[in-house]
Write a structure and sequence with these properties.
With about 240 residues, this protein is of the alpha+beta class. It has 3 domains: about 100 residues; about 80 residues; about 45 residues. The protein has 6 helices and 6 strands.
């Protein structure tokens, strides 16, 4: 939905503005009409489905005033819209200066109001941008801190993982070394040792000489006892 805003400039027509029609026509206005000593120029943006023109702005050169009318979409800033059409309006006034007596004070108020509104808009934008920038900086710092914490955590986790892997590999090597003899080989080694030592078994000495863990040696002895190859003798 659009509303029509208006700016009226008091001016005295010095001569007929009919000749202005040809000049304005060369500037590309959509519609130009002359009625009752008033020249009207329009610029339309297009037409709706019913063929009704969608007005951008209209300038009427009447005997005692010059009127600017422009469309403003509902909810949009009126002064902002005025700022967009004001340069064109000032150019049109300059073209018509030979046809009117216009006091500078007649347009000073409107232009001053428009500029004042523009300053407020710029100031507001600057404050909003400053606030947004501050918020973004705070978010960046927070995210940066989280990132650094995650990196530290990752480094710590990586170090722990590496230590665990090293310990795992070391234990695997130990297990592999301790388990390098299968059950049958181990039983044969223990049996031969017992025969060479007159039926006696020194677990500690056997373990050291063959680099086999004591629990593994005892496991081999128990297998021989279970299978009936040797008997445990208590002294």
């Amino acid at each position: 939905m659009k509303m029509t805003e208006k700016m009226v400039i008091k001016a005295v027509q010095k001569k007929s503005v009919r000749p202005l029609a040809n000049l304005m026509g060369e500037l590309g206005f959509t519609k130009i009409s002359y009625l009752n000593d008033t020249l009207t120029i329009e610029r339309v943006l297009g037409y709706d489905l019913k063929g009704k023109p969608e007005l951008d702005y209209r300038v009427s050169f009447a005997p005692n005033e010059i009127v600017l009318e422009y469309e403003v979409t509902k909810g949009k800033n009126k002064r902002g819209r005025l700022l967009s059409v004001l340069p064109t309006f000032l150019n049109v006034l300059q073209i018509a200066e030979d046809y009117y007596d216009i006091k500078p004070s007649a347009i000073y108020y409107e232009i001053n109001e428009a500029i004042g509104e523009a300053v407020k808009m710029v100031g507001k934008d600057a404050v909003e941008l400053s606030t947004e920038l501050s918020e973004l900086r705070s978010k960046y710092k927070a995210l940066r801190a989280k990132y650094e914490d995650l990196m530290k955590s990752s480094e710590t986790n990586a170090r722990i993982l590496l230590e665990c892997e090293n310990k795992r590999d070391e234990l695997a090597r130990k297990v592999e070394r301790l388990m390098k003899y299968d059950d049958e080989t181990l039983k044969e080694m223990i049996y031969e040792w017992i025969e060479l030592h007159n039926g006696k078994m020194n677990v500690l000495e056997f373990s050291k000489m063959n680099r086999i863990a004591i629990p593994r040696v005892e496991e081999g002895i128990n297998m021989l006892i279970t299978e009936g190859y040797i008997k445990r003798r208590f002294e």
